[in-house]
Amino acid sequence: MSSGGKKRKKKPVKVLRYFPLKPRLQRLFMSSKTAEHMRWHSVDSNKDGLIRHPRDSEAWKRFDETHLEFASDPRNVRLGLASDGFNPFRTLSTNYSIWPVILIPYNLPPWMCMKQTSFILSMIIPGKQMPGNDIDVYLQPLIKDLKDLWDGGVDTFDASLNQMFNMRAALMWTISDFPGLEFRNPPVALLGLEICKQLENVHVTFGKGMEVEDNRKRTHQKNNVESGCQQWRKKSIFFQLPYWEYNLLHHNLDVMHIEKNVCDNVLYTILNESGKTKDNLNARKDLKEMGVRSDLWPNENGQYRPTLFTMSNAQKDVFLTTLKNVLVPDGYSSNIARCIDLKHRKIFGLKSHDSHILMEQLLPISIRNVLPNQVSAILVDLCSIFRQICGKVLNPLDFDKLQRRVILTQCHMEMLFPPGFFTVMVHLVVHLVNELKLGGLVHYRWMYPIERYLGHLKSYVRNRAQPEGSIAEGKSVGSTSYFNLTHIEKRQAHRYVLMNSELVDRFVK
Fold first, then answer.
1. CA distances in angstroms from 63 to 170, 313, 353, listed in the order given
2. What is the pLDDT of residue 221?
3. Which among 121, 242, 99, 103 is positioned nearest to 177, based on CA atoms?
4. Do 278 and 421 meet the contact criterion of CB atoms below 8 Å apart?
5. pTM
């Protein structure tokens, strides 16, 4: 009660904004051109056997073989789900994080599939903190719609064929920037049925309270002892979908962030940048503890000698000057020269796409005459592997050869770099080729288009007190922009109104 005796309106702790999926999918078939494109994956045949689209992947083909009734109508929608958090206040210092959930219709052809105009904003999970393990609570309305679209479908009008049909939809896989952690021996690829069996005794209580956290830890520890599967903390809500356990690929490893982290490891290690290099005192102590490469062990004072891959100051000057003077076409990449500090011989502020360009184009050239041949050859081979993994057209016959090449390159790197160099991200490179077999091109399964889309959503934030509401309204109505007209533009606008207004017609006559 307020001082005046009036009841104050209660403010909800959080408001989930969900945009129903069914009408959004029905809208795809209201345009005759778009409706025709939704059948492209079935009409346009793959004659040469190369992979250019998710429809050429093993996961797509296995889904068709397992669910024949669904595959019989090419208009049934295949979806990918992506989510990531972002700060809606741009450069302002805040920990606020909004998590949009975005759906990607894979029926569309390659030139439309990953465009922002094709993305479906399904829900906006509110801040201020990331949802974490509780994201399943927010995903419930979306999962309900997906189950309805699988079980019964929804009657939809196809404008291209001028007929009604029963539209169904299925979720193929998810995309996120968290690749998973390995706290165990090399993992064995598990089928969905095997995962469900391991998850039978896993129970989780959602919430942020201390009591809930204690229960979660006790439950997690108990399950570890009973099942011996310490990697599972919960059973994902996606397993409520009837077909999910039969999918070959559930959650994609994000090549964008893996490539970024591998690039950082390489650059900061060969530059021997303090605090960031993986060749430090602890790494040298690891070698001594393992009893290998005794020439690199530290002495009693903690001092150690540089290795083959450590650049001298003169080599750093040549390497960094080469990168700073590189000129590329407009729109090819950002200005990487802004990240080069020649005075202090450092690289800083690299974005994900900067690392992508460095790994696949610039690094093989800039290190060729700087590092010894046995070092540069291994790094050039690593860059070549990433370039092939990120190719726009892939031949399935090359996958086995590429996998052997990845393993051999990793072995050569282990002979060269210290154990601390091989973080989880470096190890995950081994699994990328297998995901190429299952999911097809990485361009349909990485975070680059999603990250750009999040930047677009930031432009909708007008009211900083309600950023989620601004995004929801902007996405529904459209963003607004303000600009000043010149004197000539004002006269042209005035003349246009006079010439096209019905109120003025009677005076002209």
1. 10, 55, 33
2. 47
3. 99
4. yes
5. 0.84
